[in-house]
């Protein structure tokens, strides 16, 4: 049996990895998932047969902490004698690959969930993060990307390494079961909780409050929309992060305190998705956004920015509407277009569902990973 360690920086990433790794185990792999215990939510892992291990990893650059993490990781890798170490997220990608190289692991792979450097980023950060990715590549036997567009960039700094398209996906059968269990009574509870009338349209955005998600673009769009519509609407913003207070101030400044509600981190976003009429995302860039995949599986129309990752998932004027990043007026017009045409909204939702079932399921991704492991282990 092939023994594989997946490494991510914090337990926050369990949500995006556990379903996929459970399916990978069904193909005969012995799977460990290694992270710090920061953000641990036992609900995500209570039914999983994955073996979990916790090693402190500082998200920030800290030479002393980083050396300790590399030391502890390499000891664990040697002890367990893994055949493959597969890293995820930027910081664990560096620490995990260096530790795996020290431990002489036969196959070391890193998956980019969206490169940490991108156009428009402050120059110093861009240089720093791109140099770290180049360093990490030196300790890899192969690299993979969740989106197709980043592949050429990865090949640019890792020209002598195999680079694979891994993609991203969701467990659609699991989500269908969840969707079926969300009945009208549950939806009524959520409407009552947030004081939403049945004739009020609902916009939902689930994203951490940080610069790259650019909630302010959506706030500006909703300000434009409010001035030009009689439609009753509410926008629910789920998440936490360093910019939460700033966005609260912007909501007040744009006179949207009755229409925009920040509802904090949500362990269960699915009733919110089902209750919503439009799903929005205003990111500067993405890997392949999970919240949009899940929403499309629920047949929800999407209005989002035409950026890396998102545009690979959402088909403009087919499963939703893509607007240029920063174009708040265009986003307001897109929201109005969907709200005014129920037939169009339904068509967008159905087409989004088709895109997910055909291209973005966990099983499709797991089949790719299985193929990558077997191909690379044969070569190594």
Give the mean pLDDT: 95
Task: Output the strand order for the largest sheet.
Answer: 3-2-1-4-5-6-7
What value does the Rg take, in angstroms? 21 Å
State the low-pLDDT regions, or none. none
Helix content: 40-55%
Q: For the report, how would you describe the main beta sheet?
A: 7 strands, parallel
> How many H/I helices?
15
Q: Structural class of the helix and strand makeup? A: alpha/beta
Globally, the shape reads globular
Question: What does this entry show, briefly?
Answer:
This protein has helices at 14-25, 63-80, 90-102, 123-138, 149-157, 172-181, 184-193, 215-227, 244-253, 270-275, 290-297, 310-313, 328-340, 342-359, 362-379, and strands spanning 3-7, 30-35, 51-54, 84-88, 107-112, 142-145, 163-165, 201-206, 233-238, 260-264, 278-281, 302-305, 320-323. It has 380 residues and is an alpha/beta fold.
Explained architecture:
Helices cover 47% and strands 16% of the residues. It has helices at residues 14-25, 63-80, 90-102, 123-138, 149-157, 172-181, 184-193, 215-227, 244-253, 270-275, 290-297, 310-313, 328-340, 342-359, 362-379; strands at 3-7, 30-35, 51-54, 84-88, 107-112, 142-145, 163-165, 201-206, 233-238, 260-264, 278-281, 302-305, 320-323. α1 (14-25) crosses α15 (362-379) and α3 packs parallel to α4.
């Amino acid at each position: 049996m092939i023994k594989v360690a997946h490494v991510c920086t914090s337990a926050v990433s369990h949500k995006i990895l556990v379903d996929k790794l459970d399916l990978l185990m069904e193909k005969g792999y012995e799977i460990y998932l290694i992270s710090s215990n920061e953000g641990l939510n036992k609900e995500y892992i209570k039914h999983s047969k994955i073996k979990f291990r916790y090693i402190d990893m500082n998200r920030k650059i800290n030479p002393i902490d980083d050396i300790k993490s590399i030391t502890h990781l390499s000891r664990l890798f040697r002890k367990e004698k893994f055949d493959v170490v597969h890293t995820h997220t930027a910081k664990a990608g560096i620490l995990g690959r260096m530790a795996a190289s020290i431990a002489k692991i036969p196959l070391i792979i890193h998956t980019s969930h969206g490169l940490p450097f991108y156009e428009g980023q402050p120059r110093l950060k861009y240089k720093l993060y791109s140099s770290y990715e180049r360093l990490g590549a030196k300790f890899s036997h192969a690299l993979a990307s969740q989106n197709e567009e980043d592949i050429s960039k990865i090949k640019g700094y890792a020209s002598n390494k195999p680079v694979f398209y891994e993609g991203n996906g969701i467990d659609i059968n699991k989500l269908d079961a969840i969707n079926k269990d969300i009945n009208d009574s549950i939806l009524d509870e959520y409407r009552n909780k947030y004081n939403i009338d049945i004739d009020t349209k609902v916009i939902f955005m689930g994203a951490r409050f940080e610069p790259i998600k650019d909630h302010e673009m959506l706030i500006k769009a909703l300000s434009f929309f409010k001035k030009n519509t009689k439609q009753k609407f509410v926008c629910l913003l789920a998440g936490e992060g360093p910019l939460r207070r700033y966005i609260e101030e912007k909501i007040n400044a744009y006179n949207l305190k009755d229409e925009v509600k920040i509802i904090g981190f949500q362990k269960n976003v699915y009733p919110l998705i089902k209750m919503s009429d439009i799903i929005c995302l205003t990111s500067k860039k993405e890997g392949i956004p999970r919240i949009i995949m899940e929403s499309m599986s629920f047949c929800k129309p999407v209005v989002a920015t035409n950026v890396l990752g998102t545009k690979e998932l959402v088909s403009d004027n087919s499963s939703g509407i893509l607007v240029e990043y920063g174009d708040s007026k265009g986003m307001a017009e897109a929201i109005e277009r969907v709200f005014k045409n129920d037939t169009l909204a339904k068509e967008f939702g159905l087409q989004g569902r088709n895109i997910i079932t055909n291209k973005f399921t966990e099983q499709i991704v797991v089949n790719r990973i299985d193929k990558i492991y077997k191909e690379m282990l044969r070569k190594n």
